[in-house]
Amino acid sequence: MRRTFLLAPVCCVALLIACSDDEASSPWSPGKAGAGGSSAGGAAGESLGGSSGAASVAGGATGAAAGAEGGAAGAAGAEGGTAGSGLPKGDVVIGMWCGLPASELNAARVTEIAQAGFTTMTNACDGSTFNAAYNKQMLDLASAAGLRAFVTDERGLQAVAGTNVAANLDAIVADYSAHAALYAYHVNDEPNASLFASLSAVAGGIASRDPAHFASINLFPDYASAAQLGTSTYDEYVAAFLSTVKPAAFTYDHYNFLSDGSDGPSFFANLAVVRAHSVATGIPFGQYIQSISYNGHRDTDGPEKRWAALHTLAYGGLGVMYFTYWTPVGSPENFGDGIISAAGAKTSQYDDVKAINVSVRAIGRYLAAAKSTKVFHNGPLDAGTAPRAPGDPVYVPSAAPLTVGLFSVGNDAYALLVNRDH
């Protein structure tokens, strides 16, 4: 018996619902926790905060109903039942660009990051913190708060530039590799393809010295120019990066919310290219999503950020990263407020992100243990998207604008539905 577990975020609410092929003609609703669960995991209801809404889905996985906001009120249901308690779990990475300035690197600020639902932290983005003193303090504070850290060190950047490569890599690995809070060494942001050979040497050098951690590299979005990419097309750029550098994981950024109130035209096309290469190579990816206004880009509200985060998961992404956490100052990009203002105050985005991260962590722990098998779009099709094919295990009996991510896990399957109307 193959089961399909339906994850259906609708109007910012998500449920984890278990469906069995033997009963695919009947909709399932969240059940009770514990012994009341059915053998098909019928006790698997995971309700995540947001406004009320509902979705009806017919086919291999047949239904979802979303109630009023309630945080993770149904999480106990997801653990209930004979099958629900045995679902494999993993972890998604929730991170940031622009971490704490050196003057703000303290236990209270790091606790603030943890309380917002982040799983990782990183350096400030002005370059002044790319040193061992800051990084060691950051790692100690991260460990105390239950976080891990992406570490940027000037010596790693110098290695990418070809300066004293072996000595610089020896030094950063010696300084950080034994620390329990280290997640990865961040070594480059938005590289041109001309850097791929150098990045391969650095990524390989780190892997040989410290197999437990990896070199983190963030790629351009698909709206970068050919001159920025160093290739004729974005598909060639991603393919060349993965085949040359062979990273353990990678990220890219895509900032979709424009100052004229419109959305950029290629958010899904970018996701589709990255997902295709990730699936083909088995290399996991994450996406930086927009949490700040800057030249040509608007402030983002909670539903917009949730939309971007959940679509990252629907396409098989295992990392949701926010650009930015702390607000940069003195930049020609004319940044507005990020999650934390330049003066150190929580903006309205802090509570947005805190609520979104509850959803990302609750859904992501199941998808992180699964394999992305397909994505289709219901209703109107944007560039780079495809409709449902006959035989796909989820059918939506309307033109509702939904994105459906399909996943396999052992002999079972998941479907994550995301409302495209943010």
Brief account:
The protein is of the alpha/beta class. The protein has helices spanning 75-79, 107-115, 132-144, 154-160, 165-176, 196-209, 226-229, 234-245, 267-281, 302-314, 348-367; strands at residues 3-7, 16-20, 53-56, 63-66, 93-97, 120-122, 148-152, 182-189, 214-219, 250-253, 285-290, 319-323, 371-378, 402-409, 412-419.
Describe the 3D structure.
This protein has helices spanning 75-79, 107-115, 132-144, 154-160, 165-176, 196-209, 226-229, 234-245, 267-281, 302-314, 348-367; strands at 3-7, 16-20, 53-56, 63-66, 93-97, 120-122, 148-152, 182-189, 214-219, 250-253, 285-290, 319-323, 371-378, 402-409, 412-419. Helix 6 runs parallel beside helix 8 (234-245). The strands form three sheets. An eight-stranded parallel beta sheet has the order 5-12-11-10-9-8-7-6. It is 29% helix and 20% strand. The chain is built from eleven helices and 15 strands. Residues 10-83 have low confidence and may be disordered. Strand 10 (250-253), helix 9 (267-281) and strand 11 (285-290) form a beta-alpha-beta unit. The protein is of the alpha/beta class and 422 residues long.
